[in-house]
Amino acid sequence: MVQHTEHPRSVTFPNNDMSQFGKGLSHFQHDFLSSGLFTDERLARLIERYPREYYMITTMTQQGQKPEWRNGDLNGVSGEYALEAIRNGRLWLCLRRFDLIAPEYDDLVADAFAQIESMNPGLTTSGHKSSLLISSPGARVLYHADIPMVSLWHLRGRKRVWLYDPNDKTHLPDEVLEGIMLRETEEEIPYDQSWDQTAQSIVLEPGYALSWPHNAPHRVDNLEGLNVSITTDYFTPETKRRYGVYYTNGLMRRRLGVKPRSTSANGIGAYAKCAAALAAKKVGVKAATERSMMQTFKLNKEMPGALIDLSPAEQQAITQY
Ligand SMILES: [Fe+2]
């Protein structure tokens, strides 16, 4: 049973405010379901054609327990079996990089972004990277913040998205955000349940999409049914600069012991930091401390939804491209 605060203080409803897309909160309808690409049959075929290096399957602890994600392996099951396992288990499957593996799905997203940009003169988005998320009725995504802007195109089931103010340094201290930008950490950022009192809480229904302010911490509780969504990462020029600022501030703090003074994403300082971040990435300055992922379980082929824990000797790093 998914636990969540019964009467969240701030509940938002679809605003269809496309002028906020790429900046603030935008909650609007989409038409992806009319493509017919999200039936069990189509999803099963999609799962089967995914190479190991482009999918992740994870399980997570319950609300109230020590937050933990664990990565696993599909163990060669059929697409139908994988869906059955997700329906019955506590699992979250992420099929990444549509651009390489699922072009027909990528086209849907590309069309939607083209429409959104045509409705918003002045909005330019880039770096679109989409993944399909298929998760259990009781699955959840732990409190975290993402590096890029994120849009979530919901397709099946119901989920509640909790959004926290990205400018509240209690929710997201600068040093933590820097660690995210440097890919040192992602899921393990500090969270206190009392913050839910001031969070925005949005129930996402099939056919609705959501995009939120850059780096806004969030978590997700699935409420009902097999949940299927597309998540698309993107950047705007402003958020790319903000990324560069925090990336470079993080490097300065960690390498030079300098306490960064400015987190503004505008002005000449911001542009210089952004250039430094790109240069550092190009020469691989941070590669050694980026986190690596281990797989610690595989699906049980006889019992849909059950997991087989791997012994330390069987555990191996998951290579993701
Ligand atoms: Fe996220």
From TrEMBL:
This is JmjC domain-containing protein. SUPFAM superfamilies: Clavaminate synthase-like. It comes from the Bacteria. Residues 90-251 form the JmjC domain. InterPro entries: Cupin_8 (IPR041667), JmjC_dom (IPR003347). Coiled coil: none annotated.
